[in-house]
Amino acid sequence: MNQTYSWYSNLIKPPFAPPSWIFGPVWSVLYIIIAITFTRVFYLAIKGAIPWIIVVPFILNIIFNLSFTPLQFGLKNNYLAAIDIILVLGTLIWAICAIWPHSRIIAYAQVPYLLWVIFATVLQLSVTWLNR
Q: Once rounded to an integer, what is the mean pLDDT over residues 6-22?
């Protein structure tokens, strides 16, 4: 863990990069929102209230979201992490569009997650570019 922290702290970061300690609290709140809303999507699909195809972007989003940390900090690969965060953003937008006609509450609940992922995407692409 210390080696990973050292690696990340030595990367060139853009001036708008927040301090490292901010990521834990932000993701903790976002994961609560994700857990509640994504569970609701699965429940609606199981109940037959929405088609199962709507669940697909939510599943892909979780897979890509959970892949980011191992790619960025495990493999220490900014390029794979950049591709992954773009996939997180893309699947999140897809998920919001897919659920919108069925549950606007779930769609609106994704706004904080969407805003953070947009920021994280810009940050990751900047870090990747600066450290090429």
A: 94
